[in-house]
Amino acid sequence: MTTMTGLFPESVGSTAEMLISVQRIQAFLLYDEQYHQSTLSIKSENESNNDVKNGEKDKTKNGEKYIKQPCINFGINVSNASAKWLPNQTENSINNINLTVVPSQLVAIIGPVGAGKSSLIQAILRELPLSKGSISIYGVISYASQEPWLFNGSIKQNIIFSSSLDKERYLQVIKVCALESDLLKLPYGDRTIVGERGVSLSGGQRARINLARAVYKKADIYILDDPLTAVDACVGKHLFNKCINGYLKEKICILVTHQIQYLKRVEKIVLMENASIVSEGSYQELQSGNLDFFKSLESTEKSKITYEDQDVFDKDEVTLNPLPVFSRSNSHHSISTSMGENKLSQIQSEPVEVIETRCSGNVSPRVYLSYIFAGGSVFKILFLLFICIFTQMLSTGGDYWISYWVNLEDHVFRNTGYISTTFSGPINNESLSDSLLWWSVSRKLCIEVYVSINIMVLVVILIRCIVFVSFFTKSSMNLHNSMFDSITRASMLFFSSNSSGRILNRFTKDIGAIDERLPTPLINFINIGLSLIGTLVVVGIINVYLLIPTFFIGIFCAYIAMYYLSTSRSLKRLEGVSRSPVFTHFNETLKGLITIRAFKAEIVLSKEFDEHQDLHSSAWYLYIASNNAFGFVFDFILLIYLSILMFSFLNIDSDTFGGNVGLVITQALNLMGNIQYGIRQSAELENQMTSVERVLEYTNVPQEAPLESSLDKKPPKEWPSRGQIVFQNLCLRYSLDSPYILKNISIKIQPMEKIGIVGRTGAGKSSLIHALFRLALNDGSIIIDGIEIHQLGLHDLRSKLSIIPQDSVLFSGTIRKNLDPFNEYSDHVLWNILEEVQLKDIVEDLPVGLNAKISEGGSNFSVGQKQLLCLARSILRNKKILILDEATANVDPKTDSLIQNIIKKKFQSCTILRIAHRLNTIMDSDKVLVMDAGKVVEFGHPNNLLANKDGFFYKMIDQTYSKEKDTS
């Protein structure tokens, strides 16, 4: 009955959870599958397993390698295609699109922000379902996404991805994607671990690796979604000449771009506006078409400063590094196709990936104490302990009272020869009455006492349950909040060293174990421990000699339990660590799902996931097997103990009451079950405590500096009022054992100056911004308006700076919350800001306007629209210092011009630091800061820097712009 009453509520709860899980899984499985209808794809030679015999082979013409186009006709035909992402969406994402792309054609898709360029690409990739029309695809597709997707592996693994290794092709792709010099700088070459989302690389390096993966795949159609925005002009020119218009010139190539300087080299330009194609043709045809958007492109192009570089498109080689190189080692080997069998990675020893830590040995008592004191005060803990002890005393007392009652009946039977059914009145027989005086109890009183004890047990158990639930809930909540607070205050090094899968593992599985799995073994361990003590007391009272075998059996059981605990605890820790790669792989797969589908790599990724899952399942299986093995051995030992106990009663004293014998037997049976179950629960408690151990580990990660300044260092409320920034001997590194990224930066930026920051990818431009926000370890000093920022709390510092990052950040929630998270502004102000950034019409078209939901990562907005929302947010903040980290890289020239004008108007009295790859955007700056290899190379007015023809900046400009040809 006890087992049934205990298991029945648990089974009901488990059944309810199962039904909910089945419903959720069923709803997920019933979602629409990837769109395939009205899309035709034929097999090409590139899908053959014998790529060398039947597929493509790199050919050489005029010293340049390119990919030979197979004889079969390939192409894309889009006919009257319309589509929208959501069925209830009022307007189509693409509307009545007609487009034909033929073999060996380079097609550029251009248009303003939100025109539908990326939506058209997604429709071709069958990610966006068509509401009407058809898209026919003839050939194999390779795809480079607009936002680079890199998984946590080496650079080489990211480039090769699902393809087989072709050394010659691999080296050629490295060359045409301008990765040679980058690999030389990296300590492990192409074996360098990029980290999750490529966190260890610069934005330009991530973009080029993402492009290299697409180019390396043997395909017929290459779709490149804006791959040139994150790189500087020199590298961008190399990518266009050597890769897009060189290595892929015999292939179909669809290029989405905002880089208007390359449009004259494109065979067909597709101009999109308002989800439709408004015009298509060559550059000359669109130029004569009197199109407003194209006119704006021309005006933007004419506004650029041009310099002599006549042969920039005609040279056989674009030299990427003719500029002075500072602090660069000359010991590296050259990376080129001439290397032949030499590996790119012959630079240093194998890279060491930061693995997840796994504790060993016993769970520290500190872990138990931390969990206990997280649940409440000392008074609450003592009260809970008292309730548990009192409950066990009542339970044992009830059992003992039953024995007392049975002994009473036995005593009456022995003295009267029969069982009295009315054992309540006075006894007339004086001798019998004398023999029963010591009982001094009636049957009615026995019943009343027993019922009272059981009622008290029920009440106390109810109180104990309420206190336990409150205790466990508070403990879990406090541990979660402590870990969350610690993670949000962790240094940037922590996030670069730990994948999101590891972090999610702690917040999901480990917190889930603390919520759901830890309370049960803890309660059972306490109850069983007290029950065992009560049992031993009862057995000792009845027959003290029975404690002797109990003692030896207890020692033997303790030895086995210690052996089992050591094994199961290690297996549980191994299970926890092996679970993190499952989360990481799943997380990375979701983020790169479009790329994975485009590469037809679903099976490859599924196999990798199965490998991670099998490893985790192996650890879990061993954990379960060890539990079952322990149970079998323990059952056998306790069976021997019970047999000894039973045989001991064969020689029992005849004066011993049967109630006492029954009590000992029931207590022994209870002991047999409780010892095994108790040790199992103690093992389970220790195993689940590893989750607390893992959570506590993340509550003690390295932290950033304090958020708030000390009272004597608190800056004035209006600080900074001018915006002067002084860097003095600034050096930066991301960890104590890593090399310095910035080296002896000493510059002075006057109030309201507009500073352009330029340099090749990896020069340290973004690291300078990291230093300003104190995201890394700074040596030296940074002084803003006379206050050294390292003396300030991080909140006091960062709240005074505004930034528009290269990768725009939007949070899940409403548009209103993203613009004004603290509800400081009225709707009127928000609408005015949206109107200034030309997003008002778009937001007004949404069903609930400012309360419209932004999906995770802002995926329901285009990249350009997200950038404009970030600009609107910065305008609302209205801070004295604004940082632009390539803020206009992902927008068209017209929107770029809009953003530039807004910045000039709204931030005229502010100090602006602008990182730029498009040099024309910083030519009107007050000063230009040129960086290379973490050092300041030049710093001054653009005209002064251009006057020095041997200077770094002049050579960058010289490589970027070509002199306009005389058409007269």
Automatic annotation (TrEMBL):
CDD domains: ABCC_MRP_domain1, ABCC_MRP_domain2
GO CC terms: membrane
A Pfam family it matches: ABC_membrane
PROSITE patterns: ABC_TM1F, ABC_TRANSPORTER_1, ABC_TRANSPORTER_2
Entry-linked InterPro entries: AAA+_ATPase, ABC1_TM_dom, ABC1_TM_sf, ABC_transporter-like_ATP-bd, ABC_transporter-like_CS, ABC_transporter_C-like, P-loop_NTPase
Entry-linked SUPFAM superfamilies: ABC transporter transmembrane region (SSF90123), P-loop containing nucleoside triphosphate hydrolases (SSF52540)
Residues in ABC transporter domain copies: 76-299, 725-958
GO molecular function, one term: ABC-type transporter activity
The keyword Membrane belongs to this UniProt entry's keyword annotation: yes
Similarity annotation: Belongs to the ABC transporter superfamily. ABCC family. Conjugate transporter (TC 3.A.1.208) subfamily.
The name this protein goes by in its record: ABC transporter type 1, transmembrane domain,ABC transporter-like,P-loop containing nucleoside triphosphate
Organism: Cinara cedri
